[in-house]
């Protein structure tokens, strides 16, 4: 029983990583209606930028704010330069564009900062949290930040004019245009916000997994899985999905005899697929009714 | 979130391609065929090897094209079917001592079954959800191949070394040359069969589903059957390609069939033109040669150069090689008129 | 009569000339890829893709040969180092190696990286009788001169290193309960096998847990929690650098202090121990054959001074904490030595023969006392390791230099 409790706690700690990333995934999905494969790399690049700022002597929170601002701007620039011209191209061509962006960012980061792992500071310290050695203060802080972002996103989408306009632009672009919403800029704004959220995720994750150009490779897979499990239309679902995947995965690895440990990712993914087959819009997502 | 999400008209993921436009005219086909037959006689062995790989990847890209361009289902899991095909061939050749040519149909059938079964749960999923499910399959496959329980057969993490076949009947051909022509024959047979499939009743059913699933079912198309069938056919062809790949490379290992391969095949399809079967060979050429070009330009930044080249291609021709072909056709028609 | 004598004399003269010219030919013999002015060396590395971190090895080797060429080359010949990207994919490795051999026409293929890639090209190179020199992987199978006379390893094999740990543990901690954390691939499985072989009959009673992880996992904290629950005394860490650092950090965070032994692959002071936290890494054990570029104890070592001077001139700005830079330098120096030993007989057979006749060769980057020895029956160049313990901010060597040669099965 103690092992079970420990594994659940450890799962929550790891799940916080996935939840953070899943929020960014949901954000971009809300804005452009599909997944961005380069999202993890963008977050990694932002994290390197903040690391570089700190190397130059900028204090942590200063670097944090500058990086979020930089990522927001960079997200908008990327959308305007690279994806606006592809707005009329087929979706699959856009996906190819994401893959190209992925390759570019990964390779450039490797050239600038090398591939050796780097220590990344945490503002929360890494002592045991509330007496439990399984969750450190950093992980507790990360969960706190994730929940804070969730709250902000909720208010943004629910109560601000821009948030409502963005939702309208993503779900009914033509009607949104008719009521005077600049849908094209809404998409750019979505990119900026997703990129900013991603940068926060990156800065929270880096102290745990260490900073290096490939750090987001695995995180993004889990982030996608978490977002899809929770429902791509629901930020709350994505965060829950993140924790669930983390717990799922640890329990599979611990309790399924024989293959459990070697196959914990495939089994976790298979479970998610089962969930999707039963609830195609994810656990907390709204089903989209399609008219012919 | 609200009723606003009841989408009235949604752009289909894959725009409709009329069925005749999915293939190539006779004249052009013959020119391409002649080139594929003649070029190997004049080049070095390693280029023949590259051309063999070109055909093999073209087959795999075409298989994805049948699934996505034909039936509108999206897959990032083609590397898994490719791996199953490769391992089937390798295991039959090395453990059962079977002739390489006989292993290919078996690889195809095994993968067909595998794809057909996978298509069942996939039926309930669409769009990003299907992408995730197939993506999961692609990530899981190398781990399954490494599994200790199958190690006796798969060689585990070390993989299996495969013997390259000699030309039969004492033909005076090098191993590479023979394997190339063998692959070419298999590819042509599969290409012709695929073209016919898409022109047949089943092909029309695929395309009806692609264009509008609900309308197709209203017209009496058995949507579930044809969707899983498309998965099966696509997986089967990918499996044959995988088997050929194992023979050509003479080695199978879990590291050869990662998600990287699935992404490459996907890029090949986009560059070749979604829904245009002849584009598969252009897409295949892209995924084999462009990384080499990128590396030639800058070793440290080869990934970035590749990304930039890919962006250039999709900016210039967002519909891939198909768009080039259509423009060329229009030009040719104009010239004829004049 | 006279004419006969004359003819005989002329004939003798001709044979004499012919004889001397064959003697001259005997001095200078070339295979494809070598000439009076140039030696072509081929290489494949993962410059792109998931293993691109290793690309620095190829870049170091390229820079090393540039330095050699600037110093006048090897026996007056410039080394032309042709290196291609295989993206860590076996099919791509085959394509690139065939390009090297058939299009670039290299003399040898040197230091190709990765067990899967090397396995994929081994048969091809051996059937063409082209040396596959000093492969950059620690699998045991490269030491198999009988079946693969054209393939030779370089670094100590993973299995022999693991056996050293097992033997040390049996002697020093005979009753310890041991847990193994390993990467689920050829690298991790080789260590696992070596450890079990080293323990022999005691393996099943000593090793209480074997836990594997996938390289795609972002964090392996869950595994550490699970291992801790089994409460072993010793944790063997057979991981790549990132996961090694995660393990050392996490065990400390859990307030758990088992005896930790970490693979030689992940012992860089700058890129493993420091990120993991020096406080957390105190007392960790490992074995080494090369000096660490970021370990201050080698600051005044003549070999490492040469290494530093080389980096400053030919690779300015390179990350010196990267083990790949030390590795590439040592491997390239070994090849340079072999090519020098070949003299003017630059045939593939002779290169292979010289590679298998290294006697007590010590590249600048090897630990004091570690020497490269090869013979016609020993294709494992570096077979010596020394145990070390992490203390303060550096590794402290202890004990004898241990030879861990094991033949391939």
Q: Give the biggest sheet of chain A.
A: 2 strands, antiparallel
- Secondary-structure-based class of chain A equals mainly alpha
- Helix content class of chain B: over 70%
Fraction of residues in β-strands of chain B:
under 5%
The count of strands of chain A amounts to: 2
Mean pLDDT of chain A: 87
Query: What is the subunit arrangement here?
Result: heterotrimer
Rg measurement of chain B, Å: 20 Å
Q: How many helices of chain A in DSSP terms? A: 11
Strands side by side in the biggest sheet of chain A: 1-2
Overall, the morphology of chain B is: globular
Largest sheet of chain B: 2 strands, antiparallel
Kindly report how far apart the N and C termini of chain A lie: 52 Å
Family (chain A): Belongs to the binding-protein-dependent transport system permease family. LivHM subfamily.
GO molecular function, one term (chain A): transmembrane transporter activity
Organism (chain A): Bradyrhizobium quebecense
InterPro entries (chain A): ABC_transp_permease, BCAA_transport_permease
What labels describe this entry?
heterotrimer; A: 292 residues; mainly alpha; two-stranded antiparallel ribbon; 11 helices; 2% strand; C: 409 residues; alpha/beta; four-stranded parallel β-sheet; 14 helices; cell membrane (chain A); transmembrane helix (chain A)
List the helices and strands and how they pair.
The complex is a heterotrimer of chains A (292), B (338) and C (409).
Chain A: H1 2-32, H2 39-55, H3 60-83, H4 91-113, E1 128-129, E2 132-136, H5 137-159, H6 161-171, H7 173-178, H8 183-209, H9 216-230, H10 235-255, H11 264-278
Antiparallel strand pairs in A: 1-2
Helix pairs in contact in A: 1-5, 1-8, 1-9, 1-10, 2-3, 2-4, 2-8, 2-9, 3-8, 5-6, 5-8, 6-8, 9-10, 10-11
Chain B: H1 26-38, H2 45-71, H3 78-95, H4 100-122, H5 128-146, H6 151-154, E1 160-161, H7 175-199, H8 201-211, H9 213-218, H10 223-249, E2 251-252, H11 259-272, H12 279-297, H13 302-316, H14 321-337
Antiparallel strand pairs in B: 1-2
Helix pairs in contact in B: 2-7, 2-8, 2-10, 2-11, 2-12, 3-4, 3-5, 3-10, 4-10, 7-8, 8-10, 11-12, 12-13
Chain C: H1 2-27, E1 29-30, E2 38-45, H2 55-70, E3 78-85, H3 90-103, E4 108-110, H4 115-127, E5 132-133, H5 158-172, E6 178-183, H6 186-199, H7 203-206, E7 207-213, H8 221-230, E8 234-238, H9 241-253, E9 259-262, H10 269-276, H11 278-281, E10 285-288, H12 302-314, H13 323-342, E11 345-346, H14 348-355, E12 384-391, E13 394-403
Parallel strand pairs in C: 1-11, 2-3, 2-4, 4-5, 6-7, 6-8, 8-9
Antiparallel strand pairs in C: 10-12, 12-13
Helix pairs in contact in C: 2-13, 3-4, 5-6, 8-9, 9-10, 13-14
Membrane topology (chain A): Multi-pass membrane protein
Keywords (chain A): Amino-acid transport, Cell membrane, Membrane, Transmembrane, Transmembrane helix, Transport
InterPro entries (chain A): ABC_transp_permease, BCAA_transport_permease
């Amino acid at each position: 029983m103690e092992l079970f409790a420990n594994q659940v706690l450890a799962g929550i700690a790891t799940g916080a990583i996935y939840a953070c990333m899943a929020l960014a995934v949901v954000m971009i999905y809300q804005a452009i209606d599909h997944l961005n494969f380069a999202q993890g790399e963008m977050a990694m690049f932002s994290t390197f930028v903040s690391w570089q700022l700190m190397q130059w002597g900028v204090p942590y929170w200063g670097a944090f704010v500058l990086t979020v601002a930089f990522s927001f701007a960079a997200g908008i620039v990327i959308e305007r330069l690279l994806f606006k011209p592809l707005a009329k191209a087929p979706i699959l061509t856009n996906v190819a564009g994401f893959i190209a962006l992925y390759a570019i960012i990964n390779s450039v980061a490797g050239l600038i900062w090398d591939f050796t792992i780097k220590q990344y500071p945490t503002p929360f310290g890494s002592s045991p949290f509330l007496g439990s050695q399984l969750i450190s203060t950093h992980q507790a802080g990360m969960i706190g930040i994730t929940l804070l972002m969730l709250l902000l996103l909720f208010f943004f989408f629910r109560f601000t004019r821009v948030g409502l306009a963005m939702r309208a632009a993503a779900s009914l672009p033509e009607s949104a245009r008719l009521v005077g919403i600049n849908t094209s800029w809404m998409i750019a704004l979505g990119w900026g916000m997703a990129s900013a959220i991603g940068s926060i995720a990156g800065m929270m994750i880096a102290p745990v997994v260490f900073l290096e150009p490939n750090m987001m490779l695995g995180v993004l897979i889990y982030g996608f899985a978490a977002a899809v499990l929770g429902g791509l239309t629901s930020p709350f679902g994505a965060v829950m999905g993140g924790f669930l995947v983390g717990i799922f995965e640890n329990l599979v690895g611990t309790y399924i005899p024989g293959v459990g440990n070697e196959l914990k990712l495939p089994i976790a993914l298979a479970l998610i697929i089962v969930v999707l087959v039963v609830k195609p819009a994810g656990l907390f997502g709204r089903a989209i009714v399609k008219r012919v | 979130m609200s009723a606003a999400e009841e989408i009235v008209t949604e752009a289909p993921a894959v725009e409709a391609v009329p069925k005749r436009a999915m293939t190539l005219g006779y004249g052009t086909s013959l020119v391409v065929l002649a080139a594929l037959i003649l070029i190997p006689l004049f080049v070095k062995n390693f280029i023949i090897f590259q051309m063999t790989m070109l055909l093999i990847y073209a087959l795999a890209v075409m298989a994805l094209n049948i699934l996505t361009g034909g039936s509108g289902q999206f897959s990032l899991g083609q590397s898994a079917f490719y791996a199953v095909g490769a391992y089937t061939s390798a295991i039959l050749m090395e453990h059962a001592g079977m002739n390489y040519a006989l292993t290919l149909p078996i690889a195809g059938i095994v993968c067909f079954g595998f794809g057909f079964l996978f298509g069942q749960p996939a039926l309930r999923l669409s769009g990003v959800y299907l992408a995730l499910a197939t993506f999961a399959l692609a990530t899981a496959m190398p781990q399954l191949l490494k599994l200790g329980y199958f190690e006796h057969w798969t060689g585990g993490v070390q993989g299996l070394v495969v013997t390259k076949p000699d030309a039969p009947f004492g033909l005076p051909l090098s191993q590479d040359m023979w394997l190339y022509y063998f692959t070419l024959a298999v590819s042509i047979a599969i290409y012709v069969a695929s073209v016919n499939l898409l022109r047949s009743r089943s092909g029309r059913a695929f395309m009806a589903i692609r264009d509008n699933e609900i309308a197709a079912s209203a017209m009496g198309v058995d949507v579930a059957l044809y969707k899983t069938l498309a998965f099966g056919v696509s997986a089967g062809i990918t499996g044959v390609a995988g088997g050929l790949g194992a023979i050509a490379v003479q080695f199978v290992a879990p590291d050869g069939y990662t998600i990287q391969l699935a992404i490459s095949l996907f890029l090949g399809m986009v560059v070749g033109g979604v829904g245009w079967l002849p584009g598969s060979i252009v897409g295949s050429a892209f995924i084999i040669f462009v990384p080499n070009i990128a590396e030639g330009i800058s070793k440290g930044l080869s990934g970035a150069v590749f990304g930039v080249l890919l962006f250039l291609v999709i900016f210039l021709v967002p519909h891939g090689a198909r768009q080039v072909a259509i423009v060329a056709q229009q030009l040719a028609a104009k010239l004829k008129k004049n | 009569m006279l004419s006969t004598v004359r003819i005989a004399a002329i004939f003798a003269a001709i044979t004499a000339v012919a004889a001397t010219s064959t003697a001259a030919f005997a001095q200078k013999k070339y295979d494809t890829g070598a000439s009076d002015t140039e030696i072509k060396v081929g290489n494949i590395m993962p410059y792109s893709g998931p293993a691109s971190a290793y690309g620095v090895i190829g870049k170091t080797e390229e820079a090393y040969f540039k330095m050699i060429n600037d110093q006048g080359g090897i026996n007056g010949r410039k080394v032309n180092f042709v290196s291609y990207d295989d993206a860590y994919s076996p099919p791509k490795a085959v394509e690139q190696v065939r390009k090297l051999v058939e299009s670039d026409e290299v003399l040898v293929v040197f230091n190709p990286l990765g067990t899967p890639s090397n396995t994929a090209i081994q048969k091809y190179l051996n059937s063409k009788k082209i040396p596959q020199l000093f492969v950059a992987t620690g699998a045991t199978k490269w030491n198999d001169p009988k079946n693969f006379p054209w393939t030779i390893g370089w670094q100590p094999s993973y299995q022999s290193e693991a056996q050293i740990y097992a033997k040390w543990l049996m002697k020093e901690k005979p009753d310890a309960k041991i847990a193994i954390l390993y990467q689920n691939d050829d690298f991790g499985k080789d260590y696992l096998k070596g450890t079990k072989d080293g323990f022999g009959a005691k393996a099943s009673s000593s090793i209480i847990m074997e836990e594997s992880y996938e390289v795609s996992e972002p964090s392996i904290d869950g595994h550490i929690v699970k291992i801790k629950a089994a409460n072993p005394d010793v944790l063997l860490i057979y991981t790549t650098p990132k996961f090694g650092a995660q393990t050392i950090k996490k065990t400390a965070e859990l307030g758990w202090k088992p005896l930790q032994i970490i693979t030689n692959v992940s012992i860089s002071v700058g890129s493993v121990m420091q990120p993991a936290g020096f406080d957390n890494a105190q007392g960790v054990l490992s074995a080494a054959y090369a000096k660490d570029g970021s370990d201050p104890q080698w600051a005044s070592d003549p070999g490492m001074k040469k290494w530093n001077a080389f980096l400053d001139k030919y690779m300015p700005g390179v990350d010196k904490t990267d083990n790949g830079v030390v590795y590439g330098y040592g491997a390239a120096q070994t090849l340079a030595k072999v090519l020098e030993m070949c003299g003017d007989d630059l045939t593939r057979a002779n290169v292979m023969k010289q590679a298998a006749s290294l006697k007590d060769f010590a590249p600048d980057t090897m630990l004091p006392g570690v020497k490269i020895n090869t013979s016609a029956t020993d294709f494992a160049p570096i077979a010596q390791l020394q145990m070390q313990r992490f203390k303060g901010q550096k590794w402290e060597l202890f004990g004898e230099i241990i030879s861990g040669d094991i033949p391939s099965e």
